[in-house]
Design goal:
The protein has eleven helices and 36 strands. The strands form nine sheets. It has an eight-stranded mixed beta sheet with strand order 16-15-17-18-24-23-22-20. Strands 8-14-13-10-11 form a five-stranded mixed beta sheet, with no helix packed on it. A hairpin with a 2-residue loop joins strand 31 and strand 32.
Length: about 675
């Protein structure tokens, strides 16, 4: 119970001050005029001002509140190294016991794990959240049990009490880490890309000048190199294939280092082609002659070389050759010398007219078997006696023309197999597509029929020949869709996919296995034309395997979600398909720096008069210190008792009752009048 004098003025304080000034002025005037009652006048004014101030004696019944000490236990990944976790828990138990042995003291133990994703240690975020739940007037101290490696120092709150960092780890700890300083997300196939790597030693390192570095691409057998320690290295790499390339760098674990978790780095680079070169050879001009040209020119990644046969050799009109404005068809240069420079050759309604001899067609066949691609957009010419099928190209074509051309309207239809193939999968609205008016009848010998036309006759056939690819579109009326005839259709999307499938774009492979990572979760995707797909075998970074069943989510597409337990390289296998994927960051943030250090928190702790003792030297004793005084010393740390309380009851008694004020004021005024009246 405590008491104090409080004031509750009847009038605003400025009015009370004016009244007091007037009373003082009147007393001074009486003194100046020689009136003997001036002192009584002054006392009467004092009584009046005191009455207006209304002083009271206030008595409070208080209940003391316990001081609160926050203990934050860092349980992040870097705190699991060596014996840090056990040392932290033991120290927290002993500090809690010391604090609870003190009178009027409570303890809040707050575990702090890894932040979401790769956010690292969020000590200050956890401290701010804990302070928001407790009255700041009761916080007597903050104890951080950590290695000092936090990643949210900018969120440090304003503290009302000392803070101490009780540092884990040993003074002789050392660690070797591998970091990737520079790695592009994309690289052009066939061109070198430079990666910048660095191997560093931290802490009490043995002083090695070099170490071994192993490099593996897509999980293949690693290559070993000797690299310097403590210097940036520029590493030129040429990607082996398009799509995702996973490059793994590993530094072997050295004797005595703290951990090998930061000795490994994954870099995932998408390989893209610089330019795709396409040779388009058109026969006689027709309404759809610009369809392929417009499509390919609209793609900025395609270099198009286009020739149209406007003047066949048999044309004799008497015009001198030197007066013609036409470019001679460079057949030898294109089909013998530079044919391998092209990724795709398109014959658009082309027929044999004596321009390309059989040896050139034979060279085109070899070009396909060695990895090239030929697409034939067939018109009536393909069914004629001059068809390019009547050439060495017949050996690689997936279908033979019957010499019949069907001239009637029909709506192109995607076959059951076509719904699974990435070239035609997902082409919606078949019931509303416009009709085509011509189809060349062909008899398939091999390949995959993705679209059909009149009476389910094959319309679009794809085939693989040797290392290359061949496609046959048995109609020259795709241009009707681009003109919007009867509502049109997905002409641009269909032909774009077809061209890019032939140029071996990874995203359009019909048999493929890949994964899309999101943090530690991957979406495993298997695309296949088959009906039965087995489980995917996942090989984790530690070598353990796991079978993951897939579910069909759309025709030809099977998926599953898989949560990877560890950061690192995962290998996927299903049938003859395989893939590799890296989960987690290239270098986990928690292991970028593993040597315990108080450097990051030192300025903040010094401003709060706290300390940074190392737990290896023992758990410090706890003392009480006054606010603003040093709160740490040899073998001890301090907390500041806050003496907080809860008010249970308040009672007030006026010091000047009204009747007493009336008597005093009247007596003083009458006394002054009587004294001055005698004079």
């Amino acid at each position: 119970m405590t008491g104090q004098i409080v004031f509750d003025p009847l009038l605003p304080w400025w009015i009370v001050v004016i009244i007091g000034a007037l009373a003082l002025g009147g007393a001074l005037l009486a003194l100046w005029r020689g009136l003997t009652g001036w002192a009584l006048r002054l006392l009467a004014g004092v009584v009046l001002v005191a009455a207006l101030s209304q002083p009271s004696w206030q008595v409070e019944d208080r209940a003391p509140l316990a001081d609160i000490v926050l203990i934050l236990e860092d349980q992040s990944a870097s705190q699991q190294l060596a014996e840090r976790a056990g040392v932290t828990e033991d120290a927290a138990d002993r500090l809690e016991a010391q604090l609870l042995a003190r009178p009027n003291t409570e303890v809040r133990r707050i575990p702090v794990g890894d932040g979401e994703g790769d956010a690292g240690t969020q000590l200050m975020t956890a401290l701010s959240a804990a302070l928001a739940e407790e009255p700041r007037g009761r916080i007597a101290g903050v104890l951080l049990l950590s290695d000092g490696r936090l990643h949210d120092l900018e969120r440090a709150p304003d503290l009302p009490a000392p803070m101490h960092l009780l540092l884990t780890g040993q003074e002789d700890d050392w660690d070797r880490r591998l970091t990737v300083r520079n790695a592009p997300a994309f690289a052009i196939l066939g061109e070198e890309v430079e990666l910048t790597l660095r191997v560093e030693d931290d802490g009490a390192a043995p002083g090695d000048a070099e170490t071994e570095l192993r490099i593996s691409v897509d999980g293949a057998e690693p290559q070993s190199f000797t690299v310097p320690i403590g210097a940036d290295m520029s590493l030129p790499i040429t990607l082996p294939h398009g799509g995702l390339n996973v490059i793994e760098f590993v530094v072997p674990e050295a004797d005595g280092e703290l951990t090998d978790r930061n000795n490994r780095a994954l870099v995932q680079i998408n390989g893209v082609r610089d330019r795709l070169r396409v040779l388009l050879v058109s026969g006689e001009p027709h309404p759809g002659g610009r369809t392929w040209r417009n499509l390919l020119k609209s793609d900025s990644s395609v270099d198009l070389v286009h020739f149209t046969i406007l003047r066949p050799p048999e044309k004799q009109d008497g015009v001198p050759v030197n007066e013609l404005s036409l470019i001679a068809f460079p057949t030898r240069e294109l089909f013998l010398e530079k044919i391998d420079d092209f990724d795709l050759i398109i014959f658009d309604r082309y027929k044999r007219r004596g321009i390309l001899p059989s040896i050139y067609f034979d060279n085109i066949r070899n070009y396909v078997e060695n990895g090239g691609a030929v697409l034939i957009a067939a018109g009536p010419d393909f069914a004629s006696a001059d068809s390019i099928y009547r050439s060495p190209l017949a050996q690689i074509m997936p279908a033979e023309p019957t010499a019949r051309v069907v001239e009637e309207g029909y709506r192109p239809t995607v076959t059951d197999l076509g719904h699974k193939h990435p070239v035609t999968a997902g082409l919606q609205g078949a019931d509303t597509w416009g009709r085509w008016m011509r189809q060349v009848e062909v008899t398939p010998d091999r390949g995959e029929v993705l679209m059909s036309g009149v009476d389910e006759r094959p319309l679009l056939i794809l085939d693989r020949v040797g290392e290359g690819r061949v496609a046959l579109l048995a109609s020259d009326h795709a241009w009707l869709w681009s003109r919007g005839f009867e509502g049109g259709g997905p002409q641009l999307e269909l032909l774009r996919r077809l061209a890019h499938w032939m140029m071996k774009e990874p995203d359009l492979e019909e048999e493929a296995l890949w994964a899309e990572p999101t943090g530690q979760t991957m979406r495993i995707i298997r695309r296949s034309l088959g009906d039965d797909i087995g489980a995917v075998t996942v090989t984790r970074p530690d070598g353990e395997t796991e079978e993951v069943p897939l579910q069909e989510v759309s025709p030809g597409r099977f998926e599953a979600l898989y949560e990877g337990p560890d950061i690192g390289l995962y290998r996927l296998e299903e049938g003859d398909q395989s893939a590799v994927i890296g989960l987690g960051p290239a270098a986990p943030r928690e292991f970028e720096q593993t040597i315990a250090s108080a450097d990051a928190l030192a300025p903040m702790i010094e401003s709060l008069r706290g300390g940074t003792p190392r737990l290896a030297d023992g758990v410090p004793a706890i003392r009480s210190v006054r606010p603003g005084r040093p709160a740490a010393g040899r073998g001890w740390i301090g907390i500041t008792p806050r003496e907080a309380f809860e008010t249970l009851d308040v009672r007030q008694s006026p010091l000047l009752p009204a009747w007493l004020v009336l008597i005093l004021a009247s007596a003083l005024i009458v006394g002054a009048w009587l004294r001055e009246g005698r004079n």
